[in-house]
Records
---
Amino acid sequence: MPLLEVNKLSISFVQYVKGSVQQRITVVDELDFAINEGEIVAVVGASGSGKSLLAHAIMGILPKNVETTGSILYGGELLDEKLLRRHRGREIALVPQSISFLDPLMRVGKQLHTRADGEVQDKERDSLFERFQLGKHVARLFPFQLSGGMARKVLVSTAALGRTRLIIADEPTPGMHPDDVAEALGRFKQLAEGGCAVLFITHDIEAALRIADKVAVFYAGEAIELAAADDFKGQGERLRHPYTKALWRALPQNGFEPITGTQPARSSDVQGCLFAARCSSYAEDCKTKRPESREVRGGMVRCLHAT
Amino acid sequence: MINGIMVFAGKKLIRLAALLASVSIITFALVAMSPIDPVQSYIGADVMRVGAEQRQEIAAYWGLDRPFPERFIKWTSALLQGDMGTSMIYREPVTHVIAERFMHSALLMAFAWLLSGVIGFIAGVAAAMRKDSWLDRLIKSYCYTLASTPSFWIGLLLMMIFAVWLGWLPVGMGVPAGVLAENVTWADRLRHMVMPVLTLSVVGIAPIALHTRQKLIDVMDSDFILFAKARGERGLGLLLRHGLRNIALPAITLQFASFGELFGGAVLAEQVFSYPGLGQATVEAGLRGDVPLLMGLVLCSTLFVFTGNALADYFYRMVDPRLRYRKEERA
Ligand code: SF4
């Protein structure tokens, strides 16, 4: 049984465009995935594609105006507010995106220690600080005094503790020194080896591939492919979706072929495939028929013509 | 840190001196243009028995026959030697009048300030925590109503209810009428203070409550509250640990910055309740052309309001770590 199971999760909110005209924006559409204990699943997508909301939805901390449908199971149980109250900040930990997630008026050390923490956790964090080469004085600093890289390390150290069973890391690496990225990723990997499940949300496909077992690729709010990390090889022959292939080939070491065009904004009136305008395998029916997710070669893909 | 305070205080003192100087000049100029004849108001009801010659003498005695620029210079040089002159209405040194009046007013304003600050803050927090509930709507409508209500009107209303209809509290004055000064008890004084204090604080609650409400709503929407929630904090603990920490400072700052309104409110409230404080004395001095007293009062109230603003500024700068510490040298 997977530790975390996300079934047909949709996240949307109503936005006011021009005065009183309402528009429902769907940022995550019918997402399915599961993470087993000891497994690292990366969710890769361009910045601003609603990946943070996915993290917040699992933690149950979405703003009130954001609606979700579908279900999230944790250890086979529905992950509702009651269960979340038991596990938030203990078994389930979030690594947030930026320094603005730290209280600006509280010293780092005091802030890291929560009600749920005992001596064990404090000790663990101390040794994490050491490994990240954060001096002892860092605990006495206020968040605004941290550099970008230091802040990331502090944020990672809130979650990377022994009691954690599920880590949801939301863009934890940008701005970090490459050595520290390696350190942080190594720490995640180590936790995963100890049985922890990691959901690694990022726009950096390279960082994702360094540690992930599976990669879910997001495009305009939809998971268009779920592939094993091993599928990212060579010219991307084993990848299923044209967008994933394009992403892979856009990497410097794989040819540096840029992807033209931009992601469409999501609203309810889309017909056909969302990637149609940029797709190299585009065929006539792509414009009218919406691709459903289906299994191809042991992975999931949302493309009419994937084989 | 100590250095910072010295620089801060130095700058403030220079500003204060400039402010006091310009306020004195403006006030003097305004008095010069005022249609009130100080001799006339000095004589008061005895107007029939005072002849033109006597008027001349009175004017000469108070120096009222000299041109204004000369009087201003004389007043300034006396002031610089610590002499604020003698009040024409009270026939007492201005410093005495102000000192005595200030005691009354300071007490009144301190109570009102604390009361409105504490109640306003709590009301703001309650409204924000229960945003859009009936409680929030009640507190908001109270604030909006009061924000547009003149304080003297509240004063009259309170007087009608508590003094006239219910008879629980004295109608006005600072002490009971017809009781010797040495027989006046603290209880008497406090009873006389209740209504002016209420009047002042009822109005003072609105800004602090509305401000606190909005600020707390913003803070509770912020990323760091989200993260605190993700780490298992919630409810009252969350409010105490992260919410209040972030709204207390702006609230205190606002409360100090409101010294001006407080003083303005006190002038009206004291007038309504004939309460013998600085406010009432200011009105008297203005209406009767008592220039030395008026000048003294203007300087005093300027100093008072300035102190409030300087304290607000000080808290803002020195207590917020983002302004207190420099960004760390990078490790
Ligand atoms: S459905 Fe058509 S347009 Fe969409 S990705 Fe597949 S081939 Fe391209």
---
Amino acid sequence: MAKKTYSFYPGCSSQTKASSDNYLKSTNSMCKYLDIELKEIPDWNCCGASIGYAEGGELPRITLSARNMALSEQHNPGMDLVATCAACWLSTREAKERIAHSAQTLTEANTALAEAGLTYKGNQAARHMAEVLVEDFGFDELKRGVKKPLQGIKFAGYVGCQTNRPFGLAGESFENPKYLDNLVEAMGGEAVPYDQKVTCCGGALAFSEPEKSQKQIKDIIESAYDHGAEMIVTPCPLCQANVEIYQGEVNKRFGTKFNIPVTYYSQLITVAYGGTAAEAALDGQLIRATRLEEIAKK
Amino acid sequence: MSENYRNNFLKEVEERVEEGHWVKMCMQCGVCAGSCPLGPHWAHPPQEIFMMIRAGKREEVLTSDSMWMCTSCYNCVVRCPRKLPITHIMHGLANLAYRLGLSPKNQTTQKFASMFWNNLAQTGRVNELKLSLGMYFKDGFAQGIKNAMAMQSVGLGMVKAKRLNPMELFGGHGIKDKSGFHAMLKKAREIEDRRKNFA
Ligand code: SF4
Ligand code: SF4
Ligand code: SF4
Ligand code: SF4
């Protein structure tokens, strides 16, 4: 297949030495194997995520995303904009739709952008990396690159909220999206069915309201265990962080003994394609994904 | 300015709340009320809030901490038979309450949301370490130490896994065109304030 090029929006959490550093590293490795070139949007800014609302309000938030899209249109013309973070993707796509539906919002956003010497035109699609894999490659094509199938590993594919709602991937249901399971199976792993696949992990409230939201994380992990999973895999940096780093806290609160690795699809793909543990950034896990490490070593 | 709205809260919501013009479309079916992940902690679930808005219960709605329980999970949005953008209405109501100084004092999500925004507005990108330290110390120094101790295992783990950079405290990530960025946000805020009668 010919090389594919995308305009890349990594997002704050995926910057070097930020909380999803391992997502960025493994995405870069995965893209190398798939012959994808990611052209980073020069000087991109944070999208404000969902939690920016209290202080940020409406237009400032839309303008944040419009700035990224304007920079992308200007510097990476003719490409689709691709985000790896679910929240980044959602904010960008939402801003794009709001502007498309309202001439007033377009004028207002561009008036603000003019202060930074930019103009938003709206001529690029805003996509999530999972869409690129599923739609521009497809599972058969993805399967072709597998050198080391993830045989015998049982994964709980945790889709969560924002890669699933309100947009989701084309053709998927909100209650039981299949693409993540299909990705796992394409890499030779086993995707276990479980009932908390699209449960919200609490999002930003995992941090600001830990007492109230840790039950969400407990329910997700418990169900994954109950259905035989030995590893969780997600497409979202906040899901990953919430479900991985709070396990100790959840154990204290609920008397559980959780210790389940939480990985990204990009790490699975990198390992299955023959990448090293370093390329898959497995050293970035707080709870080591030993089964993946073993396969990477083989 | 707010005086003009006293007798017509629905009108105020339509003019000043993000996607507020949708509220009148709610048919009170109750589907959204069972959708919130933190449901038990909402004094008034979205359905009830929409009813209260129409009943003109301005103080009760704006001083409630319900909207601050929204995790932005979009369960409600995909289920609502009338397709109300409930998530954004909740955010918009929370924003209005905060702008009017009516939101509950010491509401942690509100504090976090403000910190998050101020953090990104400064440098253009979020500095995760400053953000988390800010959150630990929001209740004062002593409580901050306690909170930080409680989360120490998490924090140290993140540093060891090279996923938190302590150097961020002294600068860290940021964009280059800060002056353009600041001017842009200032302008966006001006326009919004004028449109929503905050100016
Ligand atoms: S969603 Fe989070 S990580 Fe992604 S850019 Fe926005 S704030 Fe930064
Ligand atoms: S599952 Fe959690 S992190 Fe993922 S989108 Fe939902 S709230 Fe955000
Ligand atoms: S997005 Fe907010 S209002 Fe809607 S179901 Fe989730 S928590 Fe409730
Ligand atoms: S689901 Fe929609 S129509 Fe039904 S009560 Fe909620 S907002 Fe109203």
